[in-house]
Design goal:
transmembrane; two-stranded antiparallel ribbon; mainly alpha; 67% helix; membrane; 86 residues; transmembrane helix
Length: 86
């Protein structure tokens, strides 16, 4: 595994594929917010999407409800979008 993922030859491919996957997740988050009718701009949604993905990646939960479930609604509520905006 060390020779496969962490070699100098494969590192650019691994980084590029990770960026493409991250972009896909962010685009899906923005599309879902648009379909939900939040009215927020892409510039407001992209930082929220990245923050939500980071929170969902933390291995911290209690009874199955971790940070990933509470982060997007909490952040959208602070922006004043209301319950439907999360």
């Amino acid at each position: 595994m060390r020779e496969g993922l962490f070699s100098r030859r494969s590192a650019p491919v691994v980084v590029l594929s990770s960026v493409v996957v991250l972009g896909g997740y962010v685009a899906m988050f923005v599309l879902a917010a648009e379909v939900a009718g939040t009215g927020a701009s892409v510039g407001e949604l992209v930082p929220l999407a990245v923050l939500a993905l980071l929170a969902m990646g933390l291995p911290l939960n209690v009874g199955g409800g971790g940070l990933g479930r509470g982060s997007p609604p909490g952040r959208s509520g602070r922006r004043g979008w209301g319950p439907g905006g999360g």
